[in-house]
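Service request form, structural biology core

Requester: graduate student, group of Dr. S.
Request type: structure prediction, single chain
Budget code: on file
Notes: please return the result as structure tokens.

Sequence provided:
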Amino acid sequence: MDELHHLSATEALRAFRARRLSPVELTEAVIARAERTEPVVNALCHRFFEEALRQAELAERRYAGQGEPPRPLEGLPTVVKEDEPVTGQPWTQGSVRYRDAVAGHTSVFVQRVLDAGAIVHARSTASEFASAAFTHSELWGVTRNPWNPEFSPGGSSGGSAAALAAGSTVLATGSDTAGSIRVPASFSGVVGFKPPHGRVPVDPPYHLDTYVHSGVLARTVADVALMQNVVAGPHPADVGSLRPRHVLPDPAEPGRDLRGMRIALSADLGWAVDPEVRRNTREYGERLRAAGAQVEEVGISVPRAQVMRAAAIHFHYGFGAVIAAEGPGITPYAEAFARWAAEEAAGAGVLDGYAIETELYRPVGELFERFDALVCPTAATRGLVAGEDYVGHGPEVDGERLGHYLESLLALPFNIMSRCPVLAVPSGFARNGVPTGVQIVGRPFDDDTPFRIGAAAERPQHWPEVTP
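Core staff response, request fulfilled:
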């Protein structure tokens, strides 16, 4: 098999079971690829390569019929985002302040990945305190986009997305509070899923924060579904976790075309969006039509100013306040995030935020009375510059200089509408070589439909050749 490092998880599992490929061979290929690409991409902050190879040998024995049978993710190299705790491993939060911190427990989310047989060969980089839509920190330096290293792979789960695109992992975990899974997936040309709130357990106290989601990234829709079925399900420590456990059907099974499905398409949600992103979004709509769906471009408006106001209120009274409590000396972008939330939330209380969030969902909820799903861009821009802090300004989009980089993230509204499942998939490329993406938004708690749509319109992806 050529280019083992870019083999999909589902293909690898079939090859393992048929004894055409060993988990050791795949792990060796991924490690070799990481050693080649990391000088450019810088997506892996902690490496456990020797231990990974030992685990791969044990997985190989399972597939040979020795000992226990193989588990759902048996032998698949996987990176875990740095913000998730794993007992005995560093837990720095991307901050020099916690350079020497070691986790004393493993999150329920990650424990499910480990129990399913995944091999965690490395931890992936994130922005400090997972507080930005790009990935760099004083502790780990700049993580770069494998497609064009002048740009960021996005954030905060940028290391996970970049590792997938570079071929230095097969599966990856992420977390999503303002698009932190979907935005890196978009900029990196991979697939990411923000589950509806409660589908995947989250560690306390953030399990009570409706904006916060733990989720997964991979290179194909089927791979994301495979991993999502491992991590989903209720847990006694998370009062908001949903019962019963929902299992996604195989999104690629025969006969699952889109005939009879009605899909709403918006090229912008009423926001400033780069013309190339608009073009690729509409072209994705043509793919859906070719798969049999009835696609209608709609003029829906989810007011950007109101989204920013609601988000600022929410963050000011929660996540932003935690960052603010760190005091001076943190990265400029983390400090600016907490300051922005406080300033933009001035004069508002929690109930004011709830009122705005209610009104924001109304037009989307009305769409779902007529359509099975909504498709729109994930990010408005063709990319965020690698290493740029974006303090006091956002990127320029379609001739408009944005005041904050969050204004370029069409993913953010669906953290507010947190019960909607959202699958982020590639839609094409911009002229600068950076991928663009769309998000497939399902009705509240209807996880199956976004996966069905994403699989039906999926195309084989070529991958970048990263040259040190």
